[in-house]
User: Fold this.
Amino acid sequence: MHDKEGREGEEIEHLVDESDDVLGPYARDNRDMLVYRPTKYTNTKIQCVQEEQILFSPSMDPVSTTAKIPSYVQPRCLEDEGLFVGERPWVSNNNMNIMENRLMADPLQGVRWFGGDGRILSLANPIKPNPTRLFTFPCQHPDPDDALVYRKVVHVEHDERKTTHASRPCQLDVDVHALTFFHHPLFSREHMLASRLQQLHGQFEARQQARLTAFLTDKIHALREAVKSITGGLQLHSPNVHMQQQSQEYIHEIRKTRSLRDMEEQKDRNLLKSILKVWKEMKTLREFQKFTNTSLKLNLIRKEDGSGNREEEYEEGICEEIQQIHDEFQQEYQKQLELFHQHQEHWKSWKKNKRMKLRSRQRRHRQNQMETELMSNEEKQNEEEEEEEEEQEPALSERPSEFDRDKAERLVRERVSQSRWKPGQVRLIPQLSETAAVTLTDLCPRVEQQRREELQRHSLFVRLLVNNKEVSRTAGHVLDDSFHIHFRQIFNVQIKHWPESIQLQVLEVTSRSSDSLANLFVPIPETSVLAGTALMQRLEFSSEQRVTFEHEATGSNIPVYIGGDMAAVTPLTSGTLACSVAWGMGADGTVLVPDLCTTPKDLLFGPADAITSIGAVGVTDTPRLARWIRESRLDPNDPNNATLMQLHMVTEGGQMTSAEFFRLEQLQEEFDFVSEEELLCSRRLRLLRLRNQEQPEFRACRLVPLMDREIPEKVFLEYEKRQNAKNIVDIKEHLIPHRAVVAQYILKVREEVLCMFVEVRHQYTLSDVVIEEQSLNLRMLGMGLFTMAEKRRPLKPKRKERLKVATQNLSAGDVKLLVNISKAYNLPRRQNTRQEAMSHTTPSVLNTFCTTPPRQSSQGEPEHAQDLLRPFVEVSFQRRTCRTTTAHGPNPSWHEELQLPFRALNGDYSSTTLQSLRDEVYINLFDELTYNIQEGDRETDGETHTRTEKVWLGFINIPFNTLYLQSRIEGTFKINVPKVLLGYRLEQEGLQGFWHLQNPCQAAFLSVYLTTEPLIIPGEPVREKFESHEESRLLFGAEAFRRQCHAAFPNRRLLTTVMDITGQTLIVTRYLHPLKPPSELLEINPGHPDSTVELLARFISLIPFTPDSVTFSGICDLWTTCDQFLTLLCGDEEEHSVLLCCFFLALGKKSWLLLGSAIPEGPTAYVLTKEDDMSYLIWNASSGQRYQQFDSFCPLQSVGSLVGTDNIWFNMQACDSPMRVNFDVSKTKLWKPLFSHSFPNPGLGSVQPQTLSFQPTDRSTALELQDRIEKVLKEKVMEWRPLQPTRWNRHCTAVLRRALPDLEFGLVSDSKRSGGDLQHILNEYQMCGFPLQMPFSELWPIVERVHSTGVHECQVPNVEFALAVYVHPYPSNVMSVWVYIASLKCLR
Amino acid sequence: MAAAMPSPATVFMLMIGGQVESGQFPEFDDLYLKYCFVFGNDWAPTAGLEEGISQISTKNQGSEELLVWNFPLDITFKSTNPFGWPQLVLSVYGPDVFGNDVVRGYGAVHVPITPGRHTRTVPMFVPESSSLLQRLMSWLKGRRPEYTDLRVVARGEGREVTRVRSQGHVQVCFNIVTKDLKKLGYETTSSFPHMSVEGFGSSGAGAASLS
Assistant:
C-alpha cells in the first residue's frame, strides 16, 4: 500500500512538473489540483485470502481440557475438594466455546484465562434471587394521564396468631420415654458390674459408629496428597514464599492429626481392654456367689483385617513420621549449628582480646608504681572489678550431635505399637447379649432372695411439672432386675404463655415411703422443635442419698467391695431419663407455639444474628467463638458463613469487646439533650419541664426567658413550699390539730386527682374534637326533619344568645359579675317605738325581736317615716361592694343591675383555676336609718344635717363556683336573717291566708339574677373513664338505663354510678345503708322524735360545705363514704344528704336520696322522707332545713330521680316540680326503676362501714378555739377601722357571751330559757348587732362573714363594740360557731 | 446606664410575610378561607394579624380550576423558645348544594424556619361523619362535622379519634425574616460558609465601612 501511495505521489509530482510551464507560478500549489482516477478493483478471492490473514473467526467446537491447562498439571476440581465455588453465571455452551477458542488463539497468554479445572475463571453469579433494595416508586406525583384502575378493598383475614394470641391454646408435647439406672440402692454387686459393662460397651459402640480414627486417617491422606501436589509445583515453578508457607502448615497439620489419630486409636484399645476386664470380673463374681443375677453376656467376635495394603501403609506411616522427625531435627540442627559457630567466633575474639589486655595492664602497672602512691581506693576497686569481669570467659557450647536415625525409629515404633493396631492383627469386637440365664429366686441364698423381694416392693413414676405446677404423672412401674423402665407416655400440655420451666420429677414409692430421686429440668424447646421430629434427650441424674440394706443390695453412697483385688467404690444412685419436649402440631398443621412476643428471647429472628444462623443458640462467649472460627477454618467464600466471617473480622479488629454490662436503652446517653445534673441545675429547663407537667404554679407561665440568669430563683419558691408542705403537717395555720391532718389529707387526694385529670384531659373522644349534630335514632331524625319544615315564628320571644367566651381567651378586667336585684318579700320590720317594745311582756333576746333602739330627741329624731323600712341591697364580692338605691317598705322592689369586677387568681383564667375559686358572692340586705344631727341651733337656719346608718338585716351567700358552673343563677332565695335582730321583727301579717298556712316558718325572700359578663363557658366535666370493681353487666345495664332516661328527659338529674375517693366507679345504691346516729344527740330529746330528727339535720348541716370542684380541683363528683366524710369534715350536698339519709334509715324512717336541681346550687341531692301521716318532707341536708312537699319557697326546683337502698327510680312524670310530683315509687309508670324483674338487683353490698364511731369532742378544745376566734376577730375589726379608735365594751361582751350558749340551746331544745340581762345595756346604749351562726371549718369564712355584715363600718364617734364568740362542740369534731357582734352607741 | 449599653438580646423575632395564594378544590366553588396562627406558650405576636378571613373566590371557567385568594399574611412574633414554633392553620369554607355554609377543608403547616422565600402546598382535609345516618342528616341539614377547636389541626393530641377525608390543596407562600436567632444560639441556616447569608454580611460590612 505504501508503495502504491508513493507511486501516486510521484505521479502527481510528475504531472505538476509537466504543467509547470503552462500554469506558471500557480501550478506550484498542487492543493488546487484535482485528479481523477479509476476505482480500484481487487479480486474477491484475493480479498478473501487477505481478510483471512487478518480476521479470525473462532469455532464453536469445544476446546479439549488438556489444551487449556499446562500439560504438567493434573486437572483439579475445586468443588470436589470441598471448597466453596459459587454458582457460575449461565452462559450458553456455544458462546462459551467461542470464547474459549478465542482465548486459546493466543498461544502465550491464553492459558492464563483458565482455572485448574479447565474452565474459564469466573466470579460467582452476583445476581441474588431476591431483591435486597426496596422498590421505590418512580415518581411521587403520578402523572394525571396515567389511568387509575379502581379495585375494591378486600378484607384480609387477620392472622389469627396476632390477634388472639392470648386465647389460642398452645401445646407442648412432653414424651417421657424410659428410665435407666446406672446405679440403684437395690443393685447387687453383679448389677454394678453389669451396669459398668453396659456403659463401657455403649461407649465403645458410640466410638465405633463415630469412626473417628478412620476419619482422621482419611484426613492425613488428603493432607499428604496436598503436600505432594505443592512440592511438585515447587519443583517446577520458582519457589513461592506463599506456597512454601502453605506446605509447612500442611505438614504441621499432618503431625497434629496423626497424634490425634494415634490417641483415638489408643483410646479404642483401652476401652476394649477395660470391657474385657469388667467381663472377667463379672464372671468371677458369678462363680463366686454361685448365682446369676443379670442376663448380660459378652461375646467377642474375631474380625480379620481385610485390607491387604494395610501393612504397607503402616510402614509408610512410620517412615514418614521418621522422615518428619528427621526434617525437624535437621532444621533444629541447622539452627543449633549456627548458634554453635557464633559462640565459637565469640570465644575466639574474646581470647584474642584477653591476651591484648594482659599485655597492656602489665605495662600500666609498672607506670603506676613509678608515679605516686596517691591513688584512691575507689579507683583501685574499679580496676579490680574490671579485671574480674574480663576474667569471665564465655561458655563454650557443645557441638550439636548428629541425627540418630535408629534411635528415632525405635522410639516411633514403640509408640505406634502401643497405640495402633498392628497390621494383620486380629480385631476383637465385643457384643453384649442378654442371653445368660438368671438363677431362679428359690435357688439363691437368703440375702439375695431378700433383695429380690425388696425389689418387688419398689415402684417408680415420673411427675411432670410446668412452671412448678404439677401437670400430670406417669403410671407407677415396678422395678425389675434390668433396672430399666419403659414409660412411653406422651403428655400434651396445653399452655397459653411461654413456659418458664419444665420439670420432671422421678419419684420412688415403696410400701413405707415415697421419695424423690431426682428433679430434672428439661430445657424449653426452640420454636422449631416440633413433635415427631424432636430428638430424644437423655437427662442424667444422681442423688447423694445414703441408703443401706441388710441384705445383698449394695445400697447407695456407702463403700462397696466388689470382690477380688478391686478397691472399694462408693456408688451413688444415678441414671438417665430419656425424654423429649417438643411443640405440638395442630390439626391443620399449624405449630402450636405461644406468640413470640412472649418469648424471653426472640429466637426466630435468627438470620439477623450471626451466631444463631449457624444453629448455635445462646452463645455469648464471642472470643471463644472467634477462636473456634479461626481454628475450624471455615470456607470464607461460602455465603452461608458470611455473617460469621464478618463477626470474626469485627472481633479480629478488636472493636467488639464484650462489655461487662449491657445497656437497657442503647445509645440513650448519646442522644440525651443534656446530662441529668445540668437539667436539674438549669432554671430554664426546670421551668419548662414543670410547665409541661402542668403544675398549677407554672401552667399560665408564658415566654419563659432564654437565659437562666433572667429567671429569678424565687419563681420556684412557691412550688417548693408546696412540695415540702406535703410532708409537714403545719398545725399553726389551723386551729385544731385534727383540721390540720385533714387538710393535709385533702391536699394529698387533691394532688392525686389533679394528676389523674392531667392524664385524662389528654385523652379525647370524638365529641371533644369534632362538633357533630347528634341524631340518635330514626324518631329524632324525623323530628329533626319536622323542625326544618316548621313555620318560622319571628314574633315568638326567644332568649337572646349572649356571647360565650372560652376561658383561655380572657384576661384581667374582662369579666364582670352581673347581679340583678329585682325584689324582696316579707322583710323584717322595725319596731315602731320604744313604748311598743316595752309593752311586750318579756323583753328577751331570744324569743322575740323586740328590743328597740330607744331614741331620744336630743340625740337625733328620726324622720316621721321612721317606722317604715328603708331597705337596700349591697352585693359584695372579692371585698368590693356595690349597692342599690334605697327602697321603701317590707316588700320592696328594685329591679337594678349591679356590676362588680371579677379578678381571677394570678390572672389565670383557665377553667381549672376558676372552678376552684372559693370566693363567695354576699348579697346583704340593709336597712337605712337616717338621723338628723343637731349641732348647735342649726335647725333654725333651715339647714339639716343628717346621718345615715345602715343596719344589717340578712344575707344570702352564693359561692362563685356555683355561678361559674351554672353560668347563671336565677330565683327567689330565702334570706338568712339572724335569729335575733335587735329592733326588728319578722311578721307574718303580710302573708296571711294561703301563705300563712303553707309557710309556717318566718322568712324573708329576695329575687335575684346572677350571671357573668361575658358568659364564661364552664369547663367540661371530666368524663368518668376510670376503672371499676363492679360487674360489667351491672355497669352496662346502668349505662343503658341512664341513656334511656336521658333520651326521655334530658334535663332531669340521674346518677347510677359515682366515683369514690380512689376513683373507682360504684353503683350509687351502695352508699345508702342504715347508720346509727351518735347516741349523744339521741339522748337530748328522748321523747320527741321530731326534734331528734331536726337535731340530726342540724348536726349534719354543721359539717362544713365545700364543693367537690374546690376540694378536688376538677369538675368531678367524688363521693366519700360517711366515715370518710366525718373524718374529712367537708363535703358537698351529696355527702351531707347521704349521711342524713343513712341516719334516717337507722331511725326507721322511709327515706330516699333525691337527685334534682335546686337554686342556687344547681344539680344537687336532697333527702326525701315519708312521714307517718303519708306526707313527704324534703330535707336540704347542707343547710339543715326541711320543707313540706307543697312549700312554694322550697329551693328544690326539679325532681330527677330517687335513690333507695336497693334501687334507683327515675322520674317519668310529665312535671318535675316537687309540688306536682307523686312520690309513690311503686308505680312503675311514674317511676322507672333501674332494677326490675328482668334486671334484678344482685344484692349489692354497701360501701359504708357497719357502724360509725363518734368521738366526743373535747370541751377544752372548743374553749380554746373560742378564745382564738374571738381574738382574731377583734384584731380584724380593729384592722378594718384604721382611722377610728375601736373601743370594746367589756360588760356588753360578757352579757353577750352568756347569751350565746342559750341561743344554741334554744335552738337545740325547745326549752325556753330566759334571756340575760341585755335589758340593762339597752337602757344605756343604742345597740345594733346580731348573732351569726355558722359551721366551723376554717377561720377565714368567719372573718369574711363578719366583714360582710358591715357592723364595723359604724362611723359614729364614741361608738363601742361588743364581740362574743361561742363554740359548741358536737361529736366527731363538728363545731357550731356563734359570733355575736354589736355596735353600741351611748344614749347619754 | 442600661440605655447606654446595648442590652443583649433576650428574645428572637420571626417576621412572616407572604400570602395564601390559591387553592385547588375539585368540585367545590365559591370558597373563602380563614387562617390563624397557632403557637406555643413562649411565643407572642408583636405586630400584625393573628387571624384573618378572606374574600370568596370563584373558579375560573377555563381549564385550570384554581381558586385564587392572594390573601396576605403579615405578622411578627417574638419568642424565647423554638418549641411551639408557629403553625399556620387554614380552614376553607363554602356553600353546599342548599346554600349552607359548610367547611371544605382544614390544614396546617409550620412556618418555615429559615429566612427567605418559601412556598408550601398544604393538603386539606375534613372530618368525616361518624355514621351513615349522621352523614345523611348532616348533608340534609347542612351541618357537617367540624372541629371544635382549630388548634386540633395543629396538634397531634386527640387526632386518633377522628376520621378525615382529604379534600384539595392550598398554596401558601411565606417570606421569612428572623432576628437574633443565631445570636441566641439557634442555627437554622446551613453551617457551610458558601451557603450562609454571606452576601448580606458582606454588604452589611460594606455599608458599615461607608458610614
